[in-house]
Amino acid sequence: MGAIGDRWALLIMRDLLLGIRRYDDLRQSSGVTNATLSDRLKLLTENGLVERRQYQTRPERFEYQPTEKGRDLNLLMQALVQIGDQWNLSSLEGPPLDFIDRRTGHGVKLMTVDRETSEPVERDQLGVRPGRGADALMTWRLSRGPERADALVIRSDRSQDAGPPPVPDDHSSASNP
């Protein structure tokens, strides 16, 4: 989340992943102001999600393209679209996007599977626990959930009575989304 920034950057990434490349088109599609668009494109470029390429010299004009790292955000976009389609909060007649396998033309969807067996994992069976890279703050966050058997978080042996560790100054840290 630190690499993306905020909702404007997420909307800009959405448009870039859909193939929009030019500044004016990005501005028109997202409705973002010039200052915000420039700032977010700079942030996304600095974080390695977007590459800026000059396509005209007089006047200088640039297009923006997702990097390989940025294209991995397609998973996030697909997940958000899938959730939106499931709940249809906008009361649409059908999904506005259809993710497909380009080889077959068949629709695709994301699903959670067991890493070892590749068997599907139902949403109510999904849990979370600290990973190898979890810092003290992430471990503390995971310790705050309810103590029910069906809770999302699978707790470690750490006490819930301890307060949160100090928040790191680097707000772009992957462990501090």
By DSSP, the count of extended strands is 2
What general outline do the C-alpha atoms trace? globular
Structural class: mainly alpha
Task: Tell me, rounded to a whole number, the average pLDDT.
Answer: 85
Instruction: Give the count of helical stretches.
Output: 6
Helices and strands, in order, run as: HHHEEHHH
Instruction: Report the portion of residues in β strands.
Output: 5-15%
Distance between the termini: 5 Å
The spatial strand order of the largest sheet comes to 1-2
What does this structure look like?
The protein is mainly alpha-helical and 177 residues long. 33% of the residues lie in helices and 7% in strands. The chain is built from 6 helices and 2 strands, in the order H-H-H-E-E-H-H-H. The chain has helices at 7-17, 23-30, 34-46, 68-71, 74-87, 136-143; strands at 50-56, 61-66. Strands 1-2 form a two-stranded antiparallel sheet. Helix 1 crosses helix 3 (34-46). The longest helix has 14 residues, at 74-87. It starts with 6 loop residues before the first helix and ends in a 34-residue tail after the last helix.
